[in-house]
Design a protein that fits this description.
heterodimer; A: 586 residues; alpha+beta; D-Maltodextrin-Binding Protein, domain 2; Dipeptide-binding Protein, domain 1; Dipeptide-binding Protein, domain 3; 3 domains; 5-stranded mixed beta sheet; 28 strands; 24% helix; 22% strand; globular; disordered N terminus; B: 317 residues; mainly alpha; MetI-like fold; two-stranded antiparallel sheet; 12 helices
Chain lengths: 586, 317
């Protein structure tokens, strides 16, 4: 029963920015997978469609504290009998388990357990050491030097050295590289020459000794630390057949990964499960639970959680879901806010939306509380800036919450010169004020359209919604420019800079505010968190006022897991991969 | 017969060629391509990738390349799954086939038996009851009945597993493996059989009723043949004749997978994969699978014509 919502989700492994596109239908938003990897969702649904989350004010009924299982005796025998295996549902891994070469984010979830990163991020998204025990950034912010831990090994026992890191970066500058990694856009010095075949190596990548490697960029970019500090591919394994311009051979290795993460692949059964066993060569020590399984669960994951066939699943944080989960008795529930935000892209080419006042009027005039919080049964909260409430850069200081205020909206429209015409529709210079809205087919889009229609009518705006069942068709329409507003949700944001991605990847081309570019580059020019925070605050205030995109909502989800699992935490940025090695079964 | 076959085979090739061209153009002209949906990419990267995948070439040229590769046995590489299309077929189709084959077999056996009996006892209480039950089964949406059975039999009573093909993490082999798969396929097979049963039973019933009214049946009875013999030797054989046409048409359905059933029961079949690849515009997989079904359809049609000839000597080919 494929849900109408075709969510194209691009997930990237936390550090590794692995780009992947996969279509995910969340029915009751129960999707078994963990956003272990960054889950970038081009959520077609009206923004906030899925279940948004709330930062400060917790909506009544929503779960704000973890809930502990009340009656473990209710745990189904199937789950009771599993003593050394943990099973987690994952929508649909395809078998491309090599980082940087995957198209599906679900494969990213798999490889996040098979490969460790040089640099990881903590619960706030701040870079933290993993395979690299430390790193230095040169004063000009161009050269990053990573110091690897001693004695690192791949799961087959072979050593992991700076050479492997250099190889990993280099092949992503190969002209045949067709993956979606962000490494190529980091502009490593000499990367272009290598790609064009005029240089034998990438000039900016320097192996200093087996434990030390440095990389030089052409332009400062604070996201480079995490992007470059991602998974490491073994040169001996993935590089033995490599010659410039030829990477096809790697495809044959997709199903036989060799990594350095907490688990190694035991067996992949297409469409059924991915089996892992603990990696005794993992640098933090062998994980506590011997076996781990990602079970492919395309449809509804409820039935598997209820019967004990999976130990862990995520659900939209609706009151209904939470009540149902609590009633099961044997699951612990963990509230969780994904690192994403929902927004409506505005067609800035269209006369009526060029005006900041009109955009602000829409923000005031839309009853976002009803659409994203109340109708979503508390599984969402309202967004006003391009950052998730869990980000280290998040702030509400000097941010206009745009509380629902139709009077204010009308006033702004009047100011902008749009006056109510004969049939109740506002006009300016004889042109009626219309909004052509695009959304992906989903329950939340339906809610949005129902409420927005009333809201816009009250303002005197003619609202023309158009709903797409197919995400690619929607994007094509947007590319064709035939829209005024279109709902999206971002992919998983690791660095605050990711929150502005849509302004740089070619999607939004008509917002040229020099102040924005200046601040954006300023924030990337340093790796100092406090300095960056201050710049982002300014940026958020600018965006909150200018509204080059209309912010809609944050999702809110919950993780429900078998009460026997101990030490479970979920990071918004790296999902369960971070704490999985510590999980034990009571 | 042999000229007929040559002619038919030639037609088949022309039909397949036309179909492949049409399908390719249709897929290529649906809005968006494989790269479009990946909204994280910059415009330059998108252009680079289109170049690498050859998506920037004119449709006819892309078709030519695809066709040329296909003739060399290369059906391409799934963009989304990062695997050769043929390997994907091998991974998924057999699972779909297993479900379809068992449920088709059951459907036919039950439909023939029930159809014959209810035709023979037309308007009896049995006939009425069967017809009511059949209409009920036909009008139930498959996802409803599927979920309902999961709720009752798997979640509440725990008699059968709620989905999948094997118990997660199972290392069973041999007989134990077989038993596991049988348990897991029980529910989907029941649902598929229930859904297919209705129309086929009614088909056999009405055929049988027609045949029973024929003169030769009266003659057979008049000869003093046993009723059983009349029914099964004389009536049934003739009543089954038109059904032979149907056998051929079942062929593509055996391999095509069932989107809804596979999704509800978490069955690792091709139907889900196909649907997904459409959303992603995974052209090689889409093209490969659609052509595979087209080939099966054409072969199925030919097969039913030949079977008809074999079963009924009056038919000339």
């Amino acid at each position: 029963m494929r849900k109408s919502t075709l969510v194209l989700s691009t997930l990237l492994i936390a550090g590794s920015m692995l780009l992947a596109a996969c279509s995910d239908n969340s029915s009751n938003s129960a999707s078994g997978n963990t956003p272990a990897s960054a889950s970038a969702t081009a959520d077609p649904g009206t923004a906030g469609t899925e279940k948004p989350a709330s930062p400060a004010p917790v909506p009544a009924g929503a779960l704000s504290e973890p809930f502990t299982a009340t009656d473990l005796t209710k745990l189904p025998a199937v789950a009771q009998n599993r003593t050394d295996t943990i099973i987690v549902g994952l929508t649909d891994p395809s078998g491309a388990f090599t980082p940087y070469f995957q198209e599906s984010g679900y494969d990213g979830n798999v490889s996040s357990l098979l490969y460790a990163s040089l640099v990881t991020v903590d619960d706030k998204g701040v870079p933290a050491p993993e395979l690299a025990e430390s790193w230095d950034v040169s004063d000009d912010q161009l050269t990053y030097t990573f110091h690897l831990r001693k004695g690192l090994k791949f799961s087959d026992g072979s050593p992991l050295t700076a050479e492997d890191v250099a190889f990993t970066w280099t092949i992503q500058y190969d002209k045949a590289y067709d993956g979606g990694s962000s490494v190529p856009s980091m502009n490593v010095k000499g990367g272009k020459a290598y790609k064009e075949g005029t240089a034998k190596t990438v000039e900016g990548i320097k192996v200093i000794d087996p434990q030390t490697i440095s990389v030089t960029l052409e332009k400062p970019n604070a996201t480079a630390l995490v992007t470059l500090g991602s998974n490491v591919l073994s040169k001996a394994y993935y590089g033995k057949d490599y010659t410039f311009g030829h990477l096809e051979y790697i495809k044959k290795l997709h199903e036989h990964p060799l990594g350095d993460g907490p688990y190694k692949l035991e067996k992949f059964l297409p469409g059924q499960e991915v089996r892992f066993t603990a990696n005794e060569n993992y640098f933090k020590g062998k994980p506590k639970t011997e076996h781990f399984i990602y079970k492919t669960s395309e449809g509804d994951v409820w039935q598997f959680l209820e019967t004990g066939e999976v130990d862990y699943a995520s659900f939209s944080a609706t009151d209904e879901n939470i009540e149902k989960l609590k009633a099961l008795g044997f699951v612990n529930i963990l509230p969780y806010t994904p690192s994403t935000y929902g927004y409506m892209q505005v067609n800035l080419k269209h006369e009526q939306l060029k005006d900041k006042e009109v955009r602000q009027a829409i923000m005031y005039g839309l009853d976002r509380q009803s659409i994203y919080v109340d109708a979503a049964q508390g599984a969402g909260s309202i967004a006003n800036i391009p950052a998730s409430p869990i980000s280290w850069a998040y702030t509400e200081e000097g941010i206009n919450p745009y509380k629902y205020d139709p009077e204010k909206a009308k006033q702004l429209l009047d100011q902008a010169g749009w006056t109510v015409g004969a049939n109740g529709i506002r006009e300016k210079a004889g042109k009626p004020l219309t909004i052509h809205y695009l959304g992906s087919k989903s329950k939340n889009t339906d809610i949005f359209i129902a409420v927005a229609k009333e809201n816009f009518e009250a303002l005197g705006i003619e609202f023309q919604p158009e709903v797409f069942a197919d995400f690619n068709s929607l994007v094509s329409k947007v590319e064709g420019g035939d829209y005024d507003l279109v709902s999206f949700s971002t992919s998983m944001l690791t660095d605050p800079a990711d929150g502005f991605m849509q302004f740089f990847d070619g999607e939004i081309t008509d917002y040229d505010n020099p102040k924005f570019l200046e601040l954006y580059n300023k924030a990337l020019a340093t790796t100092d968190i406090e300095q960056r925070k201050a710049v982002y605050k300014e940026l958020y205030q600018l965006f909150n006022d200018e509204l080059p995109i209309l912010f809609t909502s944050y999702k809110k989800t919950v993780y429900a897991y078998n009460g026997r699992i101990q030490n479970l935490t979920v990071s918004p940025f790296i999902g369960l991969a971070g704490s999985l090695p510590e999980w034990t079964l009571k | 017969m042999s000229t007929y076959l040559t002619k038919r085979l030639l037609y088949m090739l022309i039909i397949l060629f036309a179909a492949s061209l049409l399908i390719f153009i249709l897929y290529a002209s649906t809005p968006g391509d494989f790269i479009t949906g990946n909204i994280k990419l910059t415009a330059e990267r998108k252009a680079e990738l289109r170049e690498i995948y050859g998506l920037n070439k004119p449709v006819l040229e892309r078709y030519g390349i695809w066709m040329n590769n296909a003739f060399h046995g290369d059906f391409g590489y799934s963009l989304a799954q990062q695997k050769p299309v043929l390997q994907l077929f091998n991974d998924y189709i057999w699972n779909s086939f297993l479900l379809a084959a068992v449920s088709t077999f059951l459907t036919w056996v039950i439909a023939v038996i029930v159809g014959v009996i209810s035709a023979y006892k037309q308007y009896s209480w049995f006939d009425t009851l069967v017809m009511v039950a059949i209409f009920a089964a036909m009008s139930l949406p498959s996802f409803f009945i599927g979920l309902f059975l999961i709720k009752i039999l798997a979640v509440d009573l725990k008699w059968l597993p709620p989905g999948g093909m094997i118990t997660t993490g199972s290392h069973a082999t041999g007989l134990a493996y077989l038993k596991e798969v049988v348990r897991h396929m029980a529910l989907p097979v029941v649902v598929m059989t229930l859904l297919g049963l209705g129309s086929l039973t009614r088909y056999f019933r009405s055929n049988m009723i027609d045949v029973l009214k024929q003169d030769y049946i009266r003659t057979a009875r008049a000869k003093g043949l046993k009723e059983r013999k009349v029914l099964f030797r004389h009536a049934l054989r003739n009543a089954l004749l038109p059904a032979i046409t149907l056998v051929g048409f079942e062929l593509p359905a055996l391999f095509g997978g069932s989107l809804i059933i596979e999704q509800i029961f978490n069955w690792p079949g091709i139907g889900q994969l196909y649907m997904k690849s459409f959303g992603l515009r995974d052209y090689p997989l889409l093209m490969g699978f659609t052509m595979f079904i087209a080939i099966l359809t054409v072969i199925g049609t030919l097969l039913s014509d030949i079977l008809y000839r074999v079963a009924d000597p009056r038919v000339r080919l």
